[in-house]
Amino acid sequence: MKLTILGSGTGWIRADRHAPAYLVSLEDFHMLLDIGPGTLYQLPKINCSLNDLSALFISHFHPDHVTDLIPFFFATRYQLGYTRRTPITLISHYSFSDFYEGLKRAFG
């Protein structure tokens, strides 16, 4: 098992630390723990694409833990280089569906 720290800072933008995001990998299984701002920018740096992700774990809904969900949903919805055919497993609080519906209302 491998843990890659993509970011361990807060929502405050800093050049030396990105917002919370971790990648847990075990063979071909890759789970993203949180998806704070800048996470999607960090993934290609470790040779990981959205197609490689098996699961997404959202710990809570503070902006520094979820902001890159918006470009993630956009990229996967409009197939911007995203060729995955099987769904990604999502692990989160039961209220995530309310949060997701709010994102859809705000961003389409």
From TrEMBL:
Gene3D superfamilies: Ribonuclease Z/Hydroxyacylglutathione hydrolase-like. InterPro entries: RibonucZ/Hydroxyglut_hydro. GO terms for molecular function: 3'-tRNA processing endoribonuclease activity. It comes from the Bacteria. Pfam families: Anti-Pycsar_Apyc1 (PF23023). This is Ribonuclease Z. The lineage of its organism: Bacteria, Pseudomonadati, Thermodesulfobacteriota, Thermodesulfobacteria, Thermodesulfobacteriales.
